[in-house]
Please model this.
Amino acid sequence: MPGEAIPERVIPAKPRLTREQIAQRAALELPDGAYVNLGWGIPNLIADHLPKQITVYFHSENGILGMGRRAKPGEEDFDQVDAMKVPVTLIPGASFFHQADAHLMSRGGHLDVAVLGGFQVSEKGDLSNWKIPGAKGSGGIGGAMDIAAGAKTLLVCMEHTTKGGAPKIVKKCTYPLTGLACVDTIVTDLAVIDGKPEGLLLREVARGWTAEEVQALTGAPLIVIPEKYADLLDKRAFGNLGTLMKDGSPQVTPVWVDYDGKFVRINSAKGRVKDKNIRRDPRVSIAIQDPENPYRYLEIRGKVVEITENGADDHINTLSKKYLGNPVYPFRKPGEVRVTYKIEPEKVSSMG
Model:
């Protein structure tokens, strides 16, 4: 490619996700009730793959809030189009407004999520998505800078490599920048990767691929839960939760642990874990020890992003089935309130 500065890699001859499948996977990242802007390319396919159980209000800089899927033949209204000028449908309650107001929504921080395409994303979350050096034309920045800066959460959908095999996830962007440290999550045809202060956390790989193969096609180091330790998140391995007290000394609490592929969750009786410590400093660590080998453990450092009593009763029963084989937690005291702590991993280490 013209201006390509990243060395090409040998790509294994394995199936990768299609553009439609990337959009389908990205749709699972959208929260119920969110206001979401969809950019050009793969992101514009997401509205066709939204899970049926949620409602999302898609926003277009053309002046629509409440876009539905793309129009089928015979449904087209060419006064009602998305950012790529493709006719779309509307959901109940949709509204129209001036294009200037649409851009004010983007700039003013009123979008919960924006999904953009990308040419490059750096390990610091920088985004380049409007110009490839040496390519014909002046590029097309459009409203991407405003959207990248204004959205509360930014997802990027793209192929993992160029057609020639060069990584599109790099240590430092070499193409003109759209935004600095703005990308929260990358969904590619090979992986789902979260941007963290410590670097890029590999959360998921496409079927048939390994973390090592994805790393080989990535131009920046990935934080990975080592596959040989991943079993510790599934077996009856107890964890020790470390939090910081006001004076800086640690508080360690034995806990049961599960992992949903994105968040580590623990459950405790209310008051057993000092919530005031976590609310003051959400940084925590969880050391998970192999019950069959005391010298083998996995340590996950991250931050608590949610403390909730909602669903905590079901959660403790799920953990009880995992650890005790009993689908109902048997040790609950009268009047006891259960609390679930959701932890976002940021750094992983292991031993043994």
